[in-house]
Specification:
- The complex is a heterodimer of chains A (about 300) and B (about 375).
- With about 300 residues, chain A is mostly helical.
- Chain A has two domains: about 70 residues; about 210 residues, MetI-like fold.
- Helices cover about 75% and strands about 0% of the residues of chain A.
- Chain A contains 14 helices and no strands.
- The longest helix of chain A is centred in the last third of the chain and has 36 residues.
- Chain A starts with a helix and ends with a helix.
- The C terminus of chain A is likely disordered.
- Chain B is of the alpha+beta class and about 375 residues long.
- Chain B folds into two domains: about 220 residues, 3-Layer(aba) Sandwich (Rossmann fold), CATH 3.40.50; about 130 residues, Beta Barrel (OB fold (Dihydrolipoamide Acetyltransferase, E2P)).
- Chain B contains eight helices and 20 strands.
- A six-stranded mixed β-sheet of chain B has the order 6-7-8-3-9-10, with helices on both faces.
- The chains are: A mainly alpha (about 300), B alpha+beta (about 375).
- At the A-B interface, helix 9 and helix 10 of A face strand 6 and helix 2 of B.
């Protein structure tokens, strides 16, 4: 290895390390803060490594409701926000899985029809869909709120699912469209000649071939719907119906912030996505890569 | 099982790609559809497979009309140009998929796949995915998938075009051998005349959606029905020149670049217009000394050595050159004078207006 190459490589690794540090530091900070007692969180100068470890914040989030009712405090001032954490978690889970299921299934079928059947506007639809995705969500959210209000769907999880489907479907369809364009039609014709029905061809030949694209579309939808704040903030108002992202903001009441609960919530919110990424990252890269090249 | 086409037409919008075809592919024969790109040969094959609907006409397999049936109901097998292997399945699953669709039990399927794999010498590849195979191996898997079901008809769409020249030559022989062993009616599409000539029992030469000639390889080569077939078949291509039909001493004479050649008697020249097109293959032209009687004089324009033969291109009139294929030992200096002697028995004559061959009807295939 020449000196020039060595310097180049060292510089590259230094840059990558700096970026990794920038990305990971908040997560590490959040985790250590979540396992510190309250007094240590506010100590000056701050410390990264906890002096004493506690799971008090996690217990408050995961057992808060149970503890509140067991304490018989219901009549006094209502449950604290932490008592709703599991409700919010479940809400986010339902909305995310619902959105992902609808968006992935609809976009897969739509994209397949866009690449395989001939009809007017066939070429324009994928590009128009992409243009739709480029418009910021904030422009959609208020008209959509009015529509939801007319439909009497506000403050329901279904309204959130519908909202997220509107946001994610166009991009997923474009992604799957790019993917299906790369699936040669001959393999479907070969299966037809082999005697398979159209549905069987789609199920046994096309879907397995398009699997990386489907995974990519699903992960994109999961990320968008799990992380969204705007729609949850506008569409929902009952404490027990909030998604996680909006719910955890109740740990901040204008006068003080419960950083311990906030950080513990952040860690618990991050875990499902992190695990999912670790399991599916291979497919994700393949899916986005295929879409990019073949599109 | 024979395949019969009745008035078969196909249009894409206003573009008519097949024009009322009537023909029969005889049972157990290997028939090649040969023609340039866009002549409609692949469309015809896809219509026989059921992958394209006919605009008009009917397709019969034996006594059964099939044009309304789906591809799976026709009991055909097809080998695609790109092989079209299922990328997520291993070789065994690829070959056995048609059997699986037909509900065959797994052990029986495995046995049949094993037999075919052994014949094709791909037994050691059964657990591999298509992406881990070479072009030749993929080709064999595609063939295996077609063979395993024992179809009534084999359809092949330029299956050798993605292989390198050496492998293509090997596979030509193997495909022919498989056909002779299986004796299944086969329809093969190619634009490569060498494939058509070496593998086929019958060749249908197509152009502009019409079958220009349907006959044995010898017939289409030796007795082309028209100018298109004459020019398309043969390498190097046939020499063509306009000639005048004259009568000298009561005998018909062809005037080619000023030289009078006696008109061969295998033509029906009664009542034909005086302007004709003469064609002759380079193999039927020899080079002689410039003053030889009955030879067409000219100037050597180019020579090319092509192995054991040499191509000598002689300019016999301004912008009119004829090629002769001669032994490589024959040498001619560039720009030297030479003359070409045309084998009278091998001369072809065509109507300049219609392109139709003027050879006697009884010498043309029916």
């Amino acid at each position: 290895m020449s000196a020039k190459t060595l310097i180049g490589r060292v510089a590259l690794y230094a840059l990558l390390s700096a970026i990794t540090f920038l990305v990971c530091f908040p997560l590490v900070w959040a985790f250590f803060t979540s396992v510190k007692p309250k007094e240590e969180i506010f100590r000056w100068p701050p410390t990264l490594w906890p002096e004493s470890w506690t799971l008090e914040n996690y217990r408050a989030l995961l057992e808060g409701k149970q503890a509140y009712f067991q304490a018989g405090a219901a009549a006094a001032s209502g449950p604290p926000p932490s008592a709703f954490f599991l409700d919010w978690f479940l809400n986010s889970l339902i909305v995310t899985l619902g959105t992902t299921a609808i968006s992935t299934i609809v976009s897969t079928l739509a994209a397949y029809s866009l690449t395989r059947f001939r009809f007017p506007g066939q070429r324009a639809v994928p590009y128009l869909a992409l243009v739709g995705y480029m418009v910021p969500s904030i422009i959609f959210v208020f008209p959509m709120f009015l529509v939801m209000a007319d439909l009497r769907l506000t403050d329901t999880l279904f309204s959130l699912i519908l909202g997220y489907v509107c946001i994610t479907l166009p991009f997923c369809m474009w992604l799957m469209w790019a993917f299906f364009r790369g699936v040669p039609i001959e393999i479907e014709e070969a299966a037809l000649v082999d005697g398979a029905s159209r549905l069987r061809v789609f199920w046994e030949i096309v879907l397995p071939t398009a699997w990386p694209g489907i995974i990519a579309a699903a992960i994109f939808t999961l990320i968008v719907s799990w992380n969204d704040y705007l729609f949850g903030r506008v569409f929902m108002n009952s404490m027990e119906n909030l998604p996680l992202t909006v719910g955890v903001m109740h740990f901040f009441d204008g006068t003080h912030v419960d950083w311990g609960l906030m950080m513990a919530s952040s860690v618990l919110m991050t875990v499902p996505m992190a695990v999912l990424f670790m399991l599916l990252q291979k497919h994700l890269v393949a899916g986005f890569g295929a879409g990019a090249v073949k599109g | 099982m024979d395949v019969r086409l009745e008035g078969l037409s196909k249009s894409f919008g206003s573009n008519q790609v097949l024009k009322s075809l009537d023909m029969t592919f005889p049972e157990r024969r290997f028939v090649t559809l040969l023609g340039p790109s866009g002549c409609g040969k692949t469309t015809l094959l896809r219509m026989i497979a059921g992958l394209e609907k006919a605009t008009e006409g009917a397709i019969w397999f034996g006594g059964r009309r099939v044009d309304h049936l789906s591809p799976g109901e026709r009991n055909i097998a097809m080998v695609f140009q790109s092989y079209a292997l299922y990328p997520t399945m291993d070789v065994a699953a690829n070959i056995g998929y048609g059997l699986k669709v037909r509900g065959m039990a797994k052990p029986d399927r495995a046995e049949k796949v094993g037999i075919v794999a052994k014949v094709l010498e791909i037994g050691h590849l059964l657990a591999r995915k298509p992406k881990a195979l070479s072009g030749g191996q993929r080709q064999r898997v595609a063939l295996g998938r077609a063979m395993v079901r024992k179809p009534d008809i084999f359809l092949m769409d330029e299956p050798l075009s993605n292989l390198d020249a050496k492998l293509r030559a090997t596979m030509r022989g193997e495909l022919r051998r498989f056909h002779l062993d299986l004796q299944t009616t086969s329809i093969y599409v190619t634009h490569d005349q060498l494939e058509a000539m070496t593998m086929s029992d019958l060749v249908a030469v197509m152009d502009a959606g019409v079958v220009q000639q349907f006959g044995t390889p010898e017939e289409v080569y030796d007795r082309p029905a028209n100018l298109f077939v004459a020019g398309f078949i043969g390498s190097p291509p046939m020499n063509f020149a306009e000639v005048e039909l004259e009568t000298t001493g009561g005998r018909p004479v062809l005037r080619l670049a000023g030289t009078a050649l006696p008109a061969p008697d295998h033509f029906d020249l009664a009542g034909v217009p005086p302007r004709l097109v003469l064609g002759i293959r380079p193999q039927d032209v020899s080079v002689t000394n410039p003053d030889a009687a009955g030879a067409v004089p000219g100037t050597v324009w180019m020579t090319e050595l092509i192995g054991s033969e040499r191509l000598i291109e002689v300019e016999i009139a301004p912008k009119l050159r004829f090629t002769a294929e001669v032994k490589s030992s024959v040498r001619c200096a560039l720009n030297s004078r030479a003359a070409l002697r045309l084998d009278p028995a091998r001369i072809h004559l065509f109507d300049a207006a219609t392109g139709r061959s003027l050879a006697r009807q009884d010498s043309l295939p029916g």
